[in-house]
Write a structure and sequence with these properties.
By secondary structure, this protein is α/β, with parallel strands linked by helices. The protein folds into two domains: about 280 residues, Alpha-Beta Barrel (TIM Barrel); about 120 residues, CBS-domain (Roll). Helix content is about 35%, strand content about 20%. It contains 17 helices and 25 strands. The strands form seven sheets. The chain has an eight-stranded parallel barrel with strand order 5-6-15-16-17-18-20-21, surrounded by seven helices. Strands 7-14-13-12 form a four-stranded mixed sheet. It has a four-stranded mixed sheet with strand order 8-9-10-11. Helix 12 crosses helix 14. It binds ribavirin monophosphate. The site of ribavirin monophosphate (RVP) has 23 residues, from strand 21 and helix 13.
């Protein structure tokens, strides 16, 4: 006879935290969100730790090198998506590792032959008011000029006007030479009252741009996540098919941690993959996804350095509808954490747990941590920001960003759903969608982090480990859910936007 679970499968929204005593010294500004993401022995420290418990999902629409840099600047980690060629994934890792704070590769580029309309379209698309004008329109072509909003007047100039006619030409541009340090670049910016300093090589080819605002931001990044060489820490997704070629290339490119990305990780394929990584290189590897004790122990046995929990809870995921497998994210997490804690008690080895998918409200993150997760992985959350790799579009009066699942036809990531046999996606387990555009990662993240720290203080906890020990969690009834939001009032329009 089949096994029946006594408890229903529950989601985060069915739980609330009950406050503990908040002592006077327990203030949000003193809360530490540092957290381990690779296994360690009792009394030792993890090889990889984060400054904030956030990982961006192993997804085409979420985690490229730009997201990796932006998130590492805030103290978290991106797992750069694996559903691309080995070469291009390794290149993304390299770009993130080689990124020099403050020096950016130009993202808005045109040629002198483009028109004012092209400038306006580009600005609308990516929000940058500075465009580099190069001979071939690439970020590394010969720099011929710069266009900023000060160079044209939309009300007077014809949309057909050629960029070459109104750009500030190279001879008039104050620029730096490759090799310049960030503080030298910053001095030039200040001395000349510039907003942007292009850096060129000996042949006048554009190398980087340095923006005044980025330098200021760099100084505001006390929590950035750096390795011992002062490069950003970056993760990478791998699959259980081509690991023998992919893993060495990613490690060579500088990946700090790997993660086998699979919709259902309780499989011999996954175990083999983890064993391969453990026996061939020194880079930690996480595995998943699992939703129960057995799956967790199986992957730990294989050597997993962290275990990822969650099946079917992702915002774009339709696995539960398509295949009827999965488990409410909270129930899955609670069971796996119990197994992890028992494992730690008996072996002295701590396996960090990542709660992956299904985070809708910021408080879900705090709940996941309180339930025992060491960090959360999110797709939808990050897809909404400027830094995600997808297009920003206007639909009606709203801006949105594209966001598609790895199991959608668009991503064609059959390896994530591979069960042996045919090398293709036989049916979809994810959808292609939009998410509301939400602006910059940092602004949103600051708000989210403030909420987490504030709730932790309500729970009398200054660290994640303390929260996990002290949290008191209650199930909420369906009726009391209504009481949790604004109710029985007529909301003013200004109150309708919010998280
Ligand atoms: P969310 O944060 O709710 O958007 O969930 C992101 C997670 O959803 C990913 O980390 C991954 O585990 C899962 N995912 C990604 N693609 C798909 C799919 O197409 N079904 N699911």
């Amino acid at each position: 006879m089949a096994h029946y679970y006594n408890e229903p499968s529950r989601t985060f929204s069915e739980y609330l935290l009950v406050p503990n005593l908040t002592t006077k010294d327990c203030m949000p500004s003193k809360v530490s969100l540092r957290t381990p993401i690779s296994k360690f022995k009792r009394g030792e420290r993890a090889k990889v730790e984060l400054n904030i418990p956030f990982a961006s999902a192993v997804m085409q629409a979420v985690s490229d090198h730009n997201m990796a840099v932006a998130l590492a600047q805030c103290g978290g980690i991106s797992f750069i998506f694996g559903s691309q060629s080995v070469e291009s994934q390794a290149e993304m890792i390299r770009k993130a590792k080689n990124y020099k704070s403050g020096f950016v590769v130009s993202r808005s580029n045109l040629t002198p032959e483009h028109t004012l309309q092209d400038v306006l379209d580009l600005r609308e698309r990516n929000g940058h008011s500075t465009a580099a004008i190069t001979d071939d329109g690439t970020p590394t072509g010969k720099l011929l000029g710069i266009v900023t909003s000060r160079d044209y007047r939309v009300s007077r100039d014809s949309p057909d006007k050629k960029v070459g006619e109104f750009m500030t030409p190279f001879p008039s541009i104050i620029h730096g030479h490759a090799g310049i340090t960030l503080s030298e670049a910053n001095n030039m910016i200040w001395d000349n009252k510039l907003n942007c300093l292009p850096i060129v090589d000996d042949r006048q080819n554009l190398v980087h741009l340095v923006f005044r605002k980025d330098y200021d931001r760099h100084k505001e990044n006390p929590g950035e996540l750096l390795d011992t060489n002062k490069s950003y820490i970056v993760g990478a997704g791998i699959n259980s098919r081509d690991y023998e070629t992919r893993v060495p290339a990613l490690v060579e490119a500088g990946a700090d941690i790997l993660c086998v990305d699979s919709s259902d990780g309780y499989s011999e394929w996954q175990s083999e993959t983890v064993r391969y990584v453990k026996s061939t290189c020194d880079v930690p590897v996480g595995a998943g996804n699992v939703v129960d004790r057995e799956g967790f122990l199986y992957l730990v046995e294989a050597g997993a350095d962290f275990v990822k929990v969650g099946i079917g809870g992702g915002s774009i995921c339709i696995t539960r509808e398509q295949k009827g497998i999965g488990r409410g994210q909270a129930s899955a997490l609670i069971e796996v954490v119990e197994a992890r804690d028992e494992y730690y008690a008996s072996t002295g080895i701590y396996i960090p747990i990542c709660s992956d998918g299904g985070i809708v409200h910021d408080y879900h993150i705090t709940l996941a941590l309180a339930m025992g997760a060491d960090f959360v992985m999110m797709g939808r959350y990050f897809a909404r920001f400027d830094e995600s790799p997808t297009k920003k579009l206007r639909i009606g009066n709203n801006y949105v960003k594209e966001f598609w699942g790895e199991g959608s036809n668009r991503a064609r990531n059959w390896e994530r759903y591979d069960m042996g046999g045919k090398q293709s996606l036989v049916f979809e387990e994810g959808v292609d969608s939009y998410v509301p555009y939400a602006g910059s990662l940092r602004e949103n993240m600051d708000k989210t982090l403030s909420k987490i720290k504030s709730t932790m203080c309500n729970c009398g906890s200054m660290t994640i480990a303390e929260l996990q020990q002290k949290a008191r969690i209650t199930v909420v009834s369906a009726t009391s859910l209504v009481e949790g939001g604004a109710h029985d009032v007529i909301l003013k329009e200004s109150s309708l936007s919010g998280e």
